Amino acid sequence: MTQTTHLSGVAPGPGTFRKRAEQGGAGGSALALLLLGQFMAILDVNIVNVALPTLRADLGASGAGLQLVAAGYVIAYAVTLITGARLGDLAGHRRMFLLGVAAFSAASLACGLAPSTGWLVPFRFAQGAAAALLTPQVMSIIQRSFTGPARARALGFYSAVIAGGVVAGQVAGGLLVSADLFGWGWRWVFLVNAPVGLALLASGPRVLPADGERRGGGLDPAGLAVLAPAVLLLVVPLILGHELGWPAWGWAALAGGAALFAAFAAVERRVARRGGRPLISGRVLRAPGLLPGMLTVLLAPGSWGAFLFTTTLHLQGDLALGPMGSGLAFVPGVAAFALVGLTWQRLPARWHRPLIPAGFALAALGYLFLGPLAGGGARYEALTVVIGLGLGVLPIVMTATLEGVPTEDAADGSGLLLTVMQLGQVVGVATVGTLFLTLAEHEHSTRQAEYGTGWALAATALLGAGSALALLRRRAARRPAA
């Protein structure tokens, strides 16, 4: 009999977390440690962007080299996420989390000491691969160790860390590069991870829940051999396309990626028929509400990531803010995002599910005012709060999507959801970001570009509201059978 949890589950008793800790479960200290590791990995997606100008001057990096320094992390991360999740299932989530932290810290140290761009680029790829080993274990341990409201609260903190990490990356990057300690400039954006990683490695074995029974089935090398290049062919042109002028090879890569995803589905069916364990099993995909939930999860980070990207360019464009100032401008919006994720359970249970489409609708309404309020000031800041409040429903989406996934499939579900979230951000930035840049170049004004961008983001949020309604209908249809 498979274990599932429910959005309106019963709160654990006062001794639950203590008992779980004794039996290999997780409590508040473990959650804090896991989220610190997650924060460190998310931070490095953005922290390097602020350091690129000084890095270029110091190492004499070419434009292509800078693109690979910035994008190499995300490429390796997206390609290896599902494999990282499966490794946790096979070798133990705590073991793989600590191994991922160690590898991430070592790769960060190597990045900080790199003597040239030729060394830095492969170290950035290694850093992304280490993050893909680390981060799936966070969600898997949360899903296995917390139930009911405790799990929902943990996912709320998780979403707040993801949202805040993007902004914190910009602010921290600006602070570290500006401080220029010992004349090391840009190197500190990487070196800062080493002491954090050492602290996690020192406390992790004592705090994290012990690994339970592990599953067999192997890594599904056939599926991996098809999935990795499929994701690579999709992600690389989306990340580099605009900078390179959308060359023909990029469109060919996208078409090849789509073909490989179709081939991957066929390979996975064959693996399952032969009694193997596919990377993405049909049982996980058939979990109630998973497919519409995945679409909603794709659209929420896609909308949020594109909003942060385009608004940052506007803040540093026509509004003439520096990197640190533009990062701080997002603090109210991120705080609103976190507030919803951490407090929605205090509302009446009958409101929980309707909050999801209502949140997307609120975000869509806010996006429509990006252009009219693009002059900045208090009203523009208030607008970011409205959008943050709307998209703050992401933890509810994640809870509703994962609640039907059996506990023994936690790693597969987590890896799949994380990959979808990552692809959502990449697709959102590539599509809406390209639209913004095109409009800004045509109008010679980032303020004017905010009008068309706002409409595109509003349409994306409305699609999210529609997929959320499908998710809720699917869950409602299945509930009587449960």
Structural write-up:
This protein is mainly alpha-helical and 482 residues long. Helix content is 77%, strand content 0%. The chain has helices at 16-22, 28-59, 63-91, 93-113, 117-145, 148-179, 188-191, 193-207, 221-240, 248-273, 282-285, 290-316, 323-329, 331-343, 349-352, 355-367, 378-391, 394-402, 410-443, 446-478. It is globular and about 60 Å long.
SSE map:
Blueprint: H1 16-22, H2 28-59, H3 63-91, H4 93-113, H5 117-145, H6 148-179, H7 188-191, H8 193-207, H9 221-240, H10 248-273, H11 282-285, H12 290-316, H13 323-329, H14 331-343, H15 349-352, H16 355-367, H17 378-391, H18 394-402, H19 410-443, H20 446-478
Helix pairs in contact: 2-3, 2-5, 2-6, 2-8, 3-4, 3-5, 3-9, 3-19, 4-5, 4-8, 5-6, 5-19, 6-13, 6-14, 6-18, 9-10, 12-18, 12-19, 12-20, 14-17, 16-17, 16-20, 19-20
